Amino acid sequence: MVKICCIGAGYVGGPTMAVIALKCPEIEVAVVDISAPRINAWNSDHLPIYEPGLDDVVKKCRGKNLFFSTDVEKHVAEANIVFVSVNTPTKTQGLGAGKAADLTYWESAARMIADVSKSDKIVVEKSTVPVKTAEAIERILTHNRKGINFTILSNPEFLAEGTAIKDLFNPDRVLIGGRETPDGQKAILALRDVYAHWVPVERILCTNLWSAELSKLAANAFLAQRISSVNAMSALCEATGADVSQVSHSIGTDSRIGPKFLNASVGFGGSCFQKDILNLVYICECNGLPEVANYWKQVIKVNDYQKTRFVNRVVSSMFNTVSGKKIAILGFAFKKDTGDTRETPAIDVCKGLLGDKAKLSVYDPQVSEDQIMRDLAMKKFDWDHPAHLQPLSPTTNKQQVSVVWDVQEAVTDAHGICILTEWDEFKNLDYQKVYDNMQKPAFVFDGRNVVDVKKLREIGFIVYSIGKPL
Ligand code: NAD
Ligand code: UGA
Protein backbone atom coordinates (compact mmCIF):
# COMPACT_ATOMS: atom_id res chain seq x y z
CA MET A 1 0.00 0.00 0.00
CA VAL A 2 1.28 3.44 -0.93
CA LYS A 3 1.48 5.82 2.01
CA ILE A 4 1.74 9.51 1.41
CA CYS A 5 2.74 12.08 3.99
CA CYS A 6 2.53 15.82 3.35
CA ILE A 7 4.55 18.17 5.55
CA GLY A 8 2.64 21.46 5.79
CA ALA A 9 -1.14 21.59 6.32
CA GLY A 10 -1.66 24.98 4.71
CA TYR A 11 -3.59 26.37 1.75
CA VAL A 12 -1.80 23.95 -0.57
CA GLY A 13 -1.04 20.90 1.56
CA GLY A 14 -4.56 20.58 3.02
CA PRO A 15 -6.71 20.81 -0.14
CA THR A 16 -4.21 18.96 -2.37
CA MET A 17 -3.92 16.00 -0.05
CA ALA A 18 -7.68 15.92 0.58
CA VAL A 19 -8.23 15.60 -3.17
CA ILE A 20 -5.55 12.89 -3.53
CA ALA A 21 -7.24 10.97 -0.68
CA LEU A 22 -10.64 11.33 -2.32
CA LYS A 23 -9.46 10.22 -5.74
CA CYS A 24 -7.16 7.43 -4.51
CA PRO A 25 -9.10 5.50 -1.85
CA GLU A 26 -6.41 2.83 -1.63
CA ILE A 27 -3.72 5.35 -0.68
CA GLU A 28 -3.36 6.44 2.95
CA VAL A 29 -2.65 10.15 3.19
CA ALA A 30 -1.36 11.89 6.32
CA VAL A 31 -1.05 15.67 6.46
CA VAL A 32 1.28 16.82 9.22
CA ASP A 33 2.19 20.21 10.60
CA ILE A 34 4.12 21.70 13.48
CA SER A 35 1.18 24.00 14.20
CA ALA A 36 -1.15 22.20 16.64
CA PRO A 37 -3.97 24.78 16.27
CA ARG A 38 -3.91 24.27 12.50
CA ILE A 39 -4.08 20.49 12.81
CA ASN A 40 -6.84 20.74 15.43
CA ALA A 41 -8.82 22.89 13.03
CA TRP A 42 -8.36 20.38 10.19
CA ASN A 43 -9.77 17.75 12.56
CA SER A 44 -12.76 19.93 13.54
CA ASP A 45 -15.92 21.19 11.85
CA HIS A 46 -14.24 24.55 11.22
CA LEU A 47 -11.43 23.96 8.77
CA PRO A 48 -8.54 26.43 9.04
CA ILE A 49 -9.10 27.79 5.54
CA TYR A 50 -12.22 28.84 3.68
CA GLU A 51 -12.34 27.22 0.26
CA PRO A 52 -15.54 26.40 -1.64
CA GLY A 53 -16.11 22.60 -1.80
CA LEU A 54 -13.30 21.76 0.62
CA ASP A 55 -15.53 20.78 3.56
CA ASP A 56 -17.26 18.13 1.46
CA VAL A 57 -14.03 16.54 0.28
CA VAL A 58 -12.54 16.48 3.77
CA LYS A 59 -15.69 15.05 5.33
CA LYS A 60 -15.75 12.23 2.78
CA CYS A 61 -12.20 11.00 3.54
CA ARG A 62 -11.17 12.20 6.99
CA GLY A 63 -10.66 9.26 9.35
CA LYS A 64 -10.79 6.80 6.42
CA ASN A 65 -7.69 7.38 4.33
CA LEU A 66 -7.03 11.04 5.21
CA PHE A 67 -5.47 11.98 8.54
CA PHE A 68 -4.27 15.27 10.01
CA SER A 69 -1.61 15.00 12.69
CA THR A 70 1.15 16.80 14.56
CA ASP A 71 3.10 13.56 14.79
CA VAL A 72 5.32 14.65 11.95
CA GLU A 73 8.13 12.17 12.46
CA LYS A 74 5.97 9.04 12.71
CA HIS A 75 4.08 9.76 9.49
CA VAL A 76 7.19 10.78 7.57
CA ALA A 77 8.96 7.60 8.66
CA GLU A 78 6.03 5.44 7.47
CA ALA A 79 5.50 7.11 4.08
CA ASN A 80 6.79 6.04 0.67
CA ILE A 81 6.12 9.48 -0.81
CA VAL A 82 6.72 12.62 1.23
CA PHE A 83 5.37 15.90 -0.11
CA VAL A 84 6.87 19.06 1.33
CA SER A 85 4.40 21.93 1.20
CA VAL A 86 5.80 24.30 3.78
CA ASN A 87 5.86 28.07 3.40
CA THR A 88 8.72 29.65 1.42
CA PRO A 89 8.34 33.36 2.22
CA THR A 90 10.52 36.28 1.19
CA LYS A 91 13.62 36.69 3.37
CA THR A 92 13.38 39.66 5.69
CA GLN A 93 16.98 39.67 6.92
CA GLY A 94 20.47 38.91 5.71
CA LEU A 95 21.65 38.05 2.22
CA GLY A 96 18.91 38.65 -0.34
CA ALA A 97 16.54 40.26 2.21
CA GLY A 98 13.39 41.59 0.54
CA LYS A 99 13.86 39.34 -2.50
CA ALA A 100 15.25 35.85 -1.97
CA ALA A 101 13.07 32.97 -0.81
CA ASP A 102 13.55 32.00 2.82
CA LEU A 103 14.14 28.25 2.74
CA THR A 104 14.48 27.83 6.52
CA TYR A 105 11.24 25.87 6.81
CA TRP A 106 12.09 23.71 3.80
CA GLU A 107 15.56 22.93 5.03
CA SER A 108 14.37 21.97 8.50
CA ALA A 109 11.76 19.67 6.93
CA ALA A 110 14.48 18.06 4.77
CA ARG A 111 16.77 17.54 7.76
CA MET A 112 13.92 15.97 9.70
CA ILE A 113 13.11 13.61 6.78
CA ALA A 114 16.76 12.57 6.67
CA ASP A 115 16.82 12.00 10.43
CA VAL A 116 13.68 9.89 10.80
CA SER A 117 13.70 7.86 7.58
CA LYS A 118 14.39 4.15 7.79
CA SER A 119 13.34 3.25 4.24
CA ASP A 120 13.70 4.64 0.70
CA LYS A 121 11.48 7.60 -0.12
CA ILE A 122 10.36 9.83 -2.92
CA VAL A 123 10.55 13.42 -1.66
CA VAL A 124 8.32 15.81 -3.57
CA GLU A 125 8.85 19.57 -3.68
CA LYS A 126 5.31 20.93 -3.56
CA SER A 127 6.29 24.33 -2.22
CA THR A 128 7.35 26.95 -4.74
CA VAL A 129 11.13 27.15 -4.54
CA PRO A 130 14.03 28.79 -6.41
CA VAL A 131 15.30 26.83 -9.39
CA LYS A 132 18.09 24.46 -8.28
CA THR A 133 16.65 23.99 -4.78
CA ALA A 134 16.36 20.25 -5.41
CA GLU A 135 20.13 20.08 -5.68
CA ALA A 136 20.56 21.55 -2.19
CA ILE A 137 17.79 19.38 -0.76
CA GLU A 138 19.35 16.27 -2.28
CA ARG A 139 22.62 17.10 -0.59
CA ILE A 140 20.93 17.54 2.78
CA LEU A 141 19.01 14.28 2.42
CA THR A 142 21.86 12.13 1.19
CA HIS A 143 24.48 13.66 3.46
CA ASN A 144 22.57 12.89 6.64
CA ARG A 145 21.50 9.30 6.04
CA LYS A 146 23.75 7.03 4.03
CA GLY A 147 22.26 3.81 2.73
CA ILE A 148 18.74 5.17 2.28
CA ASN A 149 17.73 6.17 -1.22
CA PHE A 150 15.93 9.51 -1.51
CA THR A 151 14.66 10.47 -4.94
CA ILE A 152 13.61 14.06 -5.27
CA LEU A 153 10.87 15.31 -7.56
CA SER A 154 9.54 18.77 -8.28
CA ASN A 155 5.76 18.86 -8.46
CA PRO A 156 4.76 22.52 -8.18
CA GLU A 157 1.16 23.41 -7.47
CA PHE A 158 -0.86 25.69 -9.76
CA LEU A 159 -4.16 25.92 -7.85
CA ALA A 160 -5.59 29.36 -7.17
CA GLU A 161 -7.32 30.16 -3.91
CA GLY A 162 -11.08 30.37 -4.03
CA THR A 163 -11.13 27.79 -6.83
CA ALA A 164 -8.67 25.31 -5.30
CA ILE A 165 -10.97 22.28 -5.36
CA LYS A 166 -12.13 22.97 -8.90
CA ASP A 167 -8.51 23.45 -10.00
CA LEU A 168 -7.39 20.25 -8.27
CA PHE A 169 -10.25 18.18 -9.70
CA ASN A 170 -9.64 19.45 -13.20
CA PRO A 171 -6.12 20.86 -13.55
CA ASP A 172 -4.91 22.38 -16.83
CA ARG A 173 -1.81 20.32 -16.21
CA VAL A 174 0.14 18.52 -13.52
CA LEU A 175 3.87 19.08 -13.73
CA ILE A 176 6.40 16.53 -12.50
CA GLY A 177 10.12 17.11 -12.80
CA GLY A 178 12.77 14.56 -11.95
CA ARG A 179 16.34 13.54 -12.52
CA GLU A 180 17.07 12.00 -15.91
CA THR A 181 18.35 8.83 -14.20
CA PRO A 182 16.62 5.43 -13.89
CA ASP A 183 15.68 6.23 -10.26
CA GLY A 184 14.44 9.67 -11.22
CA GLN A 185 12.32 8.31 -14.08
CA LYS A 186 10.90 5.54 -11.87
CA ALA A 187 9.90 8.10 -9.25
CA ILE A 188 8.23 10.27 -11.90
CA LEU A 189 6.15 7.28 -12.98
CA ALA A 190 5.18 6.48 -9.38
CA LEU A 191 3.90 10.02 -8.83
CA ARG A 192 2.27 10.09 -12.25
CA ASP A 193 0.32 6.97 -11.25
CA VAL A 194 -1.11 8.83 -8.26
CA TYR A 195 -2.39 11.73 -10.38
CA ALA A 196 -3.49 9.40 -13.18
CA HIS A 197 -6.33 8.24 -10.88
CA TRP A 198 -8.22 11.31 -12.11
CA VAL A 199 -6.04 13.46 -14.39
CA PRO A 200 -5.81 12.41 -18.08
CA VAL A 201 -2.20 11.30 -18.69
CA GLU A 202 -1.73 13.73 -21.55
CA ARG A 203 -2.19 16.52 -19.01
CA ILE A 204 0.58 15.17 -16.79
CA LEU A 205 3.74 16.86 -18.01
CA CYS A 206 7.08 15.30 -17.15
CA THR A 207 10.26 17.39 -17.36
CA ASN A 208 13.68 17.63 -15.81
CA LEU A 209 13.93 18.99 -12.27
CA TRP A 210 15.08 22.48 -13.14
CA SER A 211 12.43 23.01 -15.81
CA ALA A 212 9.70 22.06 -13.34
CA GLU A 213 11.06 24.34 -10.62
CA LEU A 214 11.49 27.27 -12.99
CA SER A 215 8.14 26.71 -14.75
CA LYS A 216 6.33 27.47 -11.50
CA LEU A 217 8.10 30.80 -11.03
CA ALA A 218 7.63 31.56 -14.72
CA ALA A 219 3.90 30.77 -14.64
CA ASN A 220 3.30 33.12 -11.72
CA ALA A 221 5.47 35.82 -13.29
CA PHE A 222 3.54 35.60 -16.58
CA LEU A 223 0.16 35.69 -14.79
CA ALA A 224 1.14 38.69 -12.66
CA GLN A 225 2.64 40.40 -15.70
CA ARG A 226 -0.73 40.26 -17.45
CA ILE A 227 -2.36 42.03 -14.53
CA SER A 228 0.35 44.70 -14.37
CA SER A 229 0.03 45.15 -18.13
CA VAL A 230 -3.72 45.72 -17.96
CA ASN A 231 -3.32 47.91 -14.87
CA ALA A 232 -0.74 50.03 -16.67
CA MET A 233 -3.29 50.38 -19.49
CA SER A 234 -5.94 51.39 -16.95
CA ALA A 235 -3.89 54.47 -16.03
CA LEU A 236 -3.68 55.43 -19.69
CA CYS A 237 -7.42 54.80 -20.09
CA GLU A 238 -8.17 57.23 -17.28
CA ALA A 239 -5.96 59.83 -18.91
CA THR A 240 -7.51 59.46 -22.36
CA GLY A 241 -11.16 58.50 -21.95
CA ALA A 242 -10.74 54.90 -23.12
CA ASP A 243 -12.50 52.24 -21.03
CA VAL A 244 -10.23 49.48 -19.77
CA SER A 245 -13.01 46.85 -19.85
CA GLN A 246 -13.54 47.58 -23.54
CA VAL A 247 -9.80 47.49 -24.17
CA SER A 248 -9.44 44.17 -22.28
CA HIS A 249 -12.29 42.67 -24.21
CA SER A 250 -10.92 43.90 -27.51
CA ILE A 251 -7.46 42.50 -26.98
CA GLY A 252 -8.68 39.33 -25.24
CA THR A 253 -10.66 38.23 -28.29
CA ASP A 254 -7.34 37.74 -30.09
CA SER A 255 -6.90 34.01 -29.59
CA ARG A 256 -3.16 34.49 -29.15
CA ILE A 257 -3.80 36.73 -26.14
CA GLY A 258 -6.95 35.12 -24.74
CA PRO A 259 -9.61 36.67 -22.50
CA LYS A 260 -8.60 35.42 -19.04
CA PHE A 261 -6.71 37.33 -16.36
CA LEU A 262 -7.22 40.74 -17.94
CA ASN A 263 -9.30 42.39 -15.21
CA ALA A 264 -7.88 45.73 -14.16
CA SER A 265 -7.85 46.11 -10.40
CA VAL A 266 -6.46 48.01 -7.47
CA GLY A 267 -3.51 45.63 -7.77
CA PHE A 268 -2.82 41.95 -7.38
CA GLY A 269 -2.34 40.43 -3.96
CA GLY A 270 -1.99 36.97 -2.50
CA SER A 271 0.84 35.12 -0.88
CA CYS A 272 2.69 34.19 -4.05
CA PHE A 273 2.82 36.58 -7.00
CA GLN A 274 5.02 39.20 -5.36
CA LYS A 275 7.13 36.69 -3.44
CA ASP A 276 7.73 34.50 -6.48
CA ILE A 277 8.61 37.39 -8.78
CA LEU A 278 11.02 38.83 -6.21
CA ASN A 279 12.53 35.38 -5.97
CA LEU A 280 12.85 35.24 -9.77
CA VAL A 281 14.44 38.70 -9.79
CA TYR A 282 16.96 37.58 -7.19
CA ILE A 283 17.84 34.44 -9.13
CA CYS A 284 18.38 36.49 -12.30
CA GLU A 285 20.63 38.91 -10.42
CA CYS A 286 22.62 36.04 -8.93
CA ASN A 287 23.06 34.61 -12.42
CA GLY A 288 24.43 37.90 -13.79
CA LEU A 289 21.27 38.83 -15.70
CA PRO A 290 20.40 42.36 -14.47
CA GLU A 291 18.36 43.22 -17.59
CA VAL A 292 16.15 40.19 -17.09
CA ALA A 293 15.85 40.96 -13.38
CA ASN A 294 14.79 44.56 -14.13
CA TYR A 295 12.20 43.40 -16.64
CA TRP A 296 10.40 41.30 -14.02
CA LYS A 297 10.93 43.85 -11.25
CA GLN A 298 8.79 46.23 -13.25
CA VAL A 299 5.76 43.95 -12.76
CA ILE A 300 5.99 44.58 -9.00
CA LYS A 301 6.67 48.29 -9.48
CA VAL A 302 3.54 48.73 -11.60
CA ASN A 303 1.54 46.83 -8.99
CA ASP A 304 2.80 49.14 -6.24
CA TYR A 305 2.10 52.13 -8.50
CA GLN A 306 -1.49 50.95 -8.98
CA LYS A 307 -2.13 50.78 -5.23
CA THR A 308 -0.53 54.20 -4.64
CA ARG A 309 -2.49 55.65 -7.55
CA PHE A 310 -5.71 54.37 -5.99
CA VAL A 311 -4.96 55.99 -2.61
CA ASN A 312 -3.94 59.24 -4.29
CA ARG A 313 -7.18 59.25 -6.24
CA VAL A 314 -9.24 58.79 -3.08
CA VAL A 315 -7.48 61.61 -1.26
CA SER A 316 -7.35 64.03 -4.18
CA SER A 317 -11.01 63.47 -5.09
CA MET A 318 -12.10 64.11 -1.53
CA PHE A 319 -10.77 67.68 -1.64
CA ASN A 320 -7.20 66.65 -0.86
CA THR A 321 -7.90 65.54 2.66
CA VAL A 322 -9.43 62.50 4.31
CA SER A 323 -8.31 63.54 7.79
CA GLY A 324 -11.01 62.54 10.28
CA LYS A 325 -13.33 61.36 7.49
CA LYS A 326 -14.96 57.96 7.76
CA ILE A 327 -14.20 55.73 4.77
CA ALA A 328 -15.86 52.37 4.39
CA ILE A 329 -13.57 49.60 3.18
CA LEU A 330 -15.63 46.90 1.50
CA GLY A 331 -13.58 43.74 1.18
CA PHE A 332 -10.21 43.01 2.73
CA ALA A 333 -9.33 39.53 1.37
CA PHE A 334 -6.95 39.50 -1.61
CA LYS A 335 -9.72 38.12 -3.85
CA LYS A 336 -13.27 36.85 -3.45
CA ASP A 337 -14.15 33.42 -2.07
CA THR A 338 -11.21 33.30 0.30
CA GLY A 339 -10.53 34.62 3.78
CA ASP A 340 -6.83 34.93 2.94
CA THR A 341 -5.35 38.39 3.44
CA ARG A 342 -1.72 37.66 2.66
CA GLU A 343 -0.30 40.59 0.63
CA THR A 344 -3.83 41.81 -0.05
CA PRO A 345 -3.84 45.22 -1.76
CA ALA A 346 -6.27 46.28 0.99
CA ILE A 347 -3.35 46.45 3.43
CA ASP A 348 -1.48 49.03 1.35
CA VAL A 349 -4.60 51.01 0.54
CA CYS A 350 -5.70 51.09 4.20
CA LYS A 351 -2.22 52.03 5.37
CA GLY A 352 -2.12 54.82 2.77
CA LEU A 353 -5.46 56.20 3.94
CA LEU A 354 -4.51 55.85 7.61
CA GLY A 355 -1.35 57.80 6.81
CA ASP A 356 -3.67 60.62 5.69
CA LYS A 357 -5.54 60.27 9.00
CA ALA A 358 -8.75 58.72 7.63
CA LYS A 359 -11.06 56.71 9.88
CA LEU A 360 -11.72 53.31 8.38
CA SER A 361 -14.69 51.04 8.85
CA VAL A 362 -13.83 47.67 7.33
CA TYR A 363 -16.24 44.95 6.25
CA ASP A 364 -15.26 41.59 4.77
CA PRO A 365 -17.53 38.53 4.99
CA GLN A 366 -14.60 36.15 5.63
CA VAL A 367 -11.92 38.07 7.49
CA SER A 368 -11.87 38.50 11.26
CA GLU A 369 -11.20 41.73 13.14
CA ASP A 370 -8.14 40.20 14.73
CA GLN A 371 -6.65 39.37 11.32
CA ILE A 372 -7.32 42.83 9.91
CA MET A 373 -5.79 44.59 12.93
CA ARG A 374 -2.79 42.30 12.80
CA ASP A 375 -2.29 42.91 9.08
CA LEU A 376 -2.44 46.66 9.51
CA ALA A 377 0.05 46.59 12.38
CA MET A 378 2.59 44.41 10.60
CA LYS A 379 5.66 45.32 8.58
CA LYS A 380 5.95 44.27 4.91
CA PHE A 381 7.05 40.63 4.52
CA ASP A 382 6.67 39.87 8.25
CA TRP A 383 3.35 38.06 7.90
CA ASP A 384 4.94 34.73 7.10
CA HIS A 385 7.66 34.87 9.75
CA PRO A 386 5.94 33.96 13.03
CA ALA A 387 9.01 34.90 15.07
CA HIS A 388 8.74 38.51 13.89
CA LEU A 389 5.11 38.96 14.80
CA GLN A 390 4.79 41.68 17.40
CA PRO A 391 1.91 41.73 19.85
CA LEU A 392 -0.63 44.20 18.53
CA SER A 393 -0.27 47.62 20.10
CA PRO A 394 -3.82 48.71 21.00
CA THR A 395 -3.04 52.33 20.17
CA THR A 396 -1.79 51.57 16.66
CA ASN A 397 -5.01 51.19 14.80
CA LYS A 398 -7.98 50.84 17.07
CA GLN A 399 -8.68 54.57 17.19
CA GLN A 400 -8.65 54.84 13.43
CA VAL A 401 -9.97 51.44 12.37
CA SER A 402 -13.16 49.61 13.21
CA VAL A 403 -14.17 46.24 11.81
CA VAL A 404 -17.87 45.51 11.34
CA TRP A 405 -19.92 42.56 10.15
CA ASP A 406 -22.52 44.54 8.22
CA VAL A 407 -22.16 46.65 5.08
CA GLN A 408 -24.76 49.21 6.12
CA GLU A 409 -22.97 49.76 9.42
CA ALA A 410 -19.70 50.25 7.55
CA VAL A 411 -21.15 52.88 5.21
CA THR A 412 -23.32 54.85 7.65
CA ASP A 413 -21.97 58.41 7.88
CA ALA A 414 -19.06 57.52 5.61
CA HIS A 415 -17.79 60.12 3.14
CA GLY A 416 -16.50 57.48 0.78
CA ILE A 417 -16.51 53.77 0.00
CA CYS A 418 -13.52 51.81 -1.31
CA ILE A 419 -14.36 48.44 -2.83
CA LEU A 420 -11.20 46.38 -2.52
CA THR A 421 -12.42 42.79 -3.00
CA GLU A 422 -14.83 41.67 -5.70
CA TRP A 423 -17.26 39.83 -3.37
CA ASP A 424 -20.47 39.14 -5.32
CA GLU A 425 -22.60 40.80 -2.64
CA PHE A 426 -21.06 44.20 -3.50
CA LYS A 427 -22.59 44.04 -6.98
CA ASN A 428 -26.13 43.94 -5.68
CA LEU A 429 -26.11 46.10 -2.58
CA ASP A 430 -29.09 48.38 -1.99
CA TYR A 431 -27.03 51.36 -3.17
CA GLN A 432 -29.93 53.79 -2.71
CA LYS A 433 -30.00 52.90 1.00
CA VAL A 434 -26.21 53.11 1.11
CA TYR A 435 -26.34 56.58 -0.45
CA ASP A 436 -29.07 57.76 1.93
CA ASN A 437 -26.95 56.75 4.93
CA MET A 438 -23.73 58.45 3.76
CA GLN A 439 -22.34 61.97 4.09
CA LYS A 440 -22.64 64.04 0.91
CA PRO A 441 -21.07 64.25 -1.57
CA ALA A 442 -20.89 60.45 -1.42
CA PHE A 443 -17.91 58.88 -3.17
CA VAL A 444 -17.45 55.33 -4.42
CA PHE A 445 -13.95 54.19 -5.40
CA ASP A 446 -14.39 50.85 -7.08
CA GLY A 447 -11.03 49.05 -7.02
CA ARG A 448 -12.51 45.94 -8.66
CA ASN A 449 -14.90 47.37 -11.25
CA VAL A 450 -17.90 45.56 -9.78
CA VAL A 451 -20.50 48.33 -9.54
CA ASP A 452 -22.86 49.58 -12.22
CA VAL A 453 -21.33 53.02 -12.65
CA LYS A 454 -24.26 54.52 -14.56
CA LYS A 455 -26.80 53.37 -11.96
CA LEU A 456 -24.73 54.68 -9.07
CA ARG A 457 -24.22 58.04 -10.76
CA GLU A 458 -27.99 58.29 -11.28
CA ILE A 459 -28.46 57.77 -7.54
CA GLY A 460 -26.07 60.67 -6.91
CA PHE A 461 -22.75 59.02 -6.11
CA ILE A 462 -19.45 60.36 -7.42
CA VAL A 463 -17.95 57.16 -8.82
CA TYR A 464 -14.35 56.41 -9.61
CA SER A 465 -13.63 53.06 -11.26
CA ILE A 466 -10.31 51.65 -12.36
CA GLY A 467 -9.55 52.58 -15.97
CA LYS A 468 -12.99 54.07 -16.71
CA PRO A 469 -13.91 57.53 -17.93
CA LEU A 470 -14.69 59.88 -15.04
P1 NAD B 1 0.87 27.98 4.43
O1 NAD B 1 1.63 28.97 5.22
O2 NAD B 1 -0.62 28.08 4.37
O3 NAD B 1 1.21 26.50 4.95
C1 NAD B 1 2.50 26.08 5.24
C2 NAD B 1 2.43 25.21 6.49
O4 NAD B 1 3.69 24.59 6.69
C3 NAD B 1 2.12 25.98 7.78
O5 NAD B 1 0.94 25.48 8.37
C4 NAD B 1 3.36 25.74 8.66
O6 NAD B 1 3.05 25.59 10.03
C5 NAD B 1 3.88 24.43 8.09
N1 NAD B 1 5.30 24.19 8.35
C6 NAD B 1 6.35 25.02 8.18
N2 NAD B 1 7.50 24.40 8.50
C7 NAD B 1 7.17 23.14 8.87
C8 NAD B 1 7.92 22.00 9.29
N3 NAD B 1 9.26 22.06 9.36
N4 NAD B 1 7.26 20.87 9.62
C9 NAD B 1 5.91 20.82 9.55
N5 NAD B 1 5.14 21.84 9.14
C10 NAD B 1 5.76 22.99 8.79
O7 NAD B 1 1.47 28.03 2.96
P2 NAD B 1 0.73 27.66 1.59
O8 NAD B 1 -0.07 28.82 1.11
O9 NAD B 1 0.08 26.33 1.72
O10 NAD B 1 1.98 27.58 0.62
C11 NAD B 1 2.90 26.51 0.71
C12 NAD B 1 3.81 26.54 -0.49
O11 NAD B 1 3.03 26.35 -1.69
C13 NAD B 1 4.54 27.87 -0.70
O12 NAD B 1 5.82 27.60 -1.21
C14 NAD B 1 3.72 28.58 -1.74
O13 NAD B 1 4.49 29.46 -2.52
C15 NAD B 1 3.22 27.44 -2.60
N6 NAD B 1 1.94 27.68 -3.28
C16 NAD B 1 0.91 28.30 -2.65
C17 NAD B 1 -0.31 28.47 -3.30
C18 NAD B 1 -1.48 29.15 -2.63
O14 NAD B 1 -2.48 29.37 -3.29
N7 NAD B 1 -1.43 29.50 -1.36
C19 NAD B 1 -0.49 27.96 -4.59
C20 NAD B 1 0.58 27.31 -5.21
C21 NAD B 1 1.79 27.17 -4.54
C1 UGA C 1 -2.11 32.45 -8.17
C2 UGA C 1 -2.11 31.68 -9.49
O1 UGA C 1 -3.29 32.01 -10.22
C3 UGA C 1 -2.05 30.17 -9.25
O2 UGA C 1 -1.94 29.49 -10.49
C4 UGA C 1 -0.82 29.86 -8.39
O3 UGA C 1 -0.79 28.48 -8.08
C5 UGA C 1 -0.90 30.66 -7.11
O4 UGA C 1 -0.97 32.07 -7.42
C6 UGA C 1 0.30 30.50 -6.24
O5 UGA C 1 1.35 30.11 -6.69
O6 UGA C 1 0.13 30.84 -5.06
P1 UGA C 1 -3.92 33.05 -6.34
O7 UGA C 1 -2.89 34.03 -5.87
O8 UGA C 1 -4.53 32.15 -5.34
O9 UGA C 1 -3.30 32.11 -7.48
O10 UGA C 1 -5.12 33.85 -7.03
P2 UGA C 1 -5.29 34.56 -8.46
O11 UGA C 1 -6.63 34.23 -8.96
O12 UGA C 1 -4.16 34.30 -9.34
O13 UGA C 1 -5.30 36.09 -8.07
C7 UGA C 1 -4.14 36.76 -7.62
C8 UGA C 1 -4.41 38.24 -7.50
O14 UGA C 1 -4.55 38.83 -8.78
C9 UGA C 1 -5.69 38.57 -6.75
O15 UGA C 1 -5.48 39.69 -5.92
C10 UGA C 1 -6.66 38.89 -7.85
O16 UGA C 1 -7.71 39.73 -7.44
C11 UGA C 1 -5.76 39.58 -8.85
N1 UGA C 1 -6.26 39.54 -10.24
C12 UGA C 1 -6.45 38.35 -10.87
C13 UGA C 1 -6.48 40.72 -10.91
O17 UGA C 1 -6.30 41.83 -10.36
N2 UGA C 1 -6.93 40.68 -12.20
C14 UGA C 1 -7.14 39.50 -12.86
O18 UGA C 1 -7.53 39.53 -14.05
C15 UGA C 1 -6.89 38.31 -12.16
Automatic annotation (TrEMBL):
<keyword id="KW-0520">NAD</keyword>
<feature type="binding site">
    <location>
        <position position="342"/>
    </location>
    <ligand>
        <name>NAD(+)</name>
    </ligand>
</feature>
<feature type="binding site">
    <location>
        <begin position="127"/>
        <end position="128"/>
    </location>
    <ligand>
        <name>NAD(+)</name>
    </ligand>
</feature>
<dbReference type="GO" id="GO:0003979">
    <property type="term" value="F:UDP-glucose 6-dehydrogenase activity"/>
</dbReference>
<dbReference type="Pfam" id="PF03721">
    <property type="entry name" value="UDPG_MGDP_dh_N"/>
</dbReference>
<feature type="domain" description="UDP-glucose/GDP-mannose dehydrogenase C-terminal">
    <location>
        <begin position="328"/>
        <end position="453"/>
    </location>
</feature>
<dbReference type="GO" id="GO:0005634">
    <property type="term" value="C:nucleus"/>
</dbReference>
<dbReference type="Pfam" id="PF03720">
    <property type="entry name" value="UDPG_MGDP_dh_C"/>
</dbReference>
<protein>
    <recommendedName>
        <fullName>UDP-glucose 6-dehydrogenase</fullName>
        <ecNumber>1.1.1.22</ecNumber>
    </recommendedName>
</protein>
<keyword id="KW-0560">Oxidoreductase</keyword>
<feature type="binding site">
    <location>
        <begin position="272"/>
        <end position="275"/>
    </location>
    <ligand>
        <name>NAD(+)</name>
    </ligand>
</feature>
<dbReference type="Pfam" id="PF00984">
    <property type="entry name" value="UDPG_MGDP_dh"/>
</dbReference>
<dbReference type="InterPro" id="IPR028356">
    <property type="entry name" value="UDPglc_DH_euk"/>
</dbReference>
<dbReference type="InterPro" id="IPR017476">
    <property type="entry name" value="UDP-Glc/GDP-Man"/>
</dbReference>
<feature type="binding site">
    <location>
        <position position="38"/>
    </location>
    <ligand>
        <name>NAD(+)</name>
    </ligand>
</feature>
<dbReference type="InterPro" id="IPR008927">
    <property type="entry name" value="6-PGluconate_DH-like_C_sf"/>
</dbReference>
<feature type="active site" description="Nucleophile">
    <location>
        <position position="272"/>
    </location>
</feature>
<feature type="binding site">
    <location>
        <begin position="8"/>
        <end position="13"/>
    </location>
    <ligand>
        <name>NAD(+)</name>
    </ligand>
</feature>
<dbReference type="InterPro" id="IPR036291">
    <property type="entry name" value="NAD(P)-bd_dom_sf"/>
</dbReference>
<dbReference type="InterPro" id="IPR014026">
    <property type="entry name" value="UDP-Glc/GDP-Man_DH_dimer"/>
</dbReference>
<dbReference type="InterPro" id="IPR014027">
    <property type="entry name" value="UDP-Glc/GDP-Man_DH_C"/>
</dbReference>
<feature type="binding site">
    <location>
        <position position="33"/>
    </location>
    <ligand>
        <name>NAD(+)</name>
    </ligand>
</feature>
<comment type="similarity">
    <text>Belongs to the UDP-glucose/GDP-mannose dehydrogenase family.</text>
</comment>
<dbReference type="GO" id="GO:0051287">
    <property type="term" value="F:NAD binding"/>
</dbReference>
<feature type="binding site">
    <location>
        <position position="161"/>
    </location>
    <ligand>
        <name>NAD(+)</name>
    </ligand>
</feature>
<dbReference type="GO" id="GO:0006024">
    <property type="term" value="P:glycosaminoglycan biosynthetic process"/>
</dbReference>
<feature type="binding site">
    <location>
        <begin position="86"/>
        <end position="90"/>
    </location>
    <ligand>
        <name>NAD(+)</name>
    </ligand>
</feature>
<comment type="pathway">
    <text>Nucleotide-sugar biosynthesis; UDP-alpha-D-glucuronate biosynthesis; UDP-alpha-D-glucuronate from UDP-alpha-D-glucose: step 1/1.</text>
</comment>
<dbReference type="InterPro" id="IPR001732">
    <property type="entry name" value="UDP-Glc/GDP-Man_DH_N"/>
</dbReference>
<dbReference type="InterPro" id="IPR036220">
    <property type="entry name" value="UDP-Glc/GDP-Man_DH_C_sf"/>
</dbReference>
<dbReference type="GO" id="GO:0006065">
    <property type="term" value="P:UDP-glucuronate biosynthetic process"/>
</dbReference>
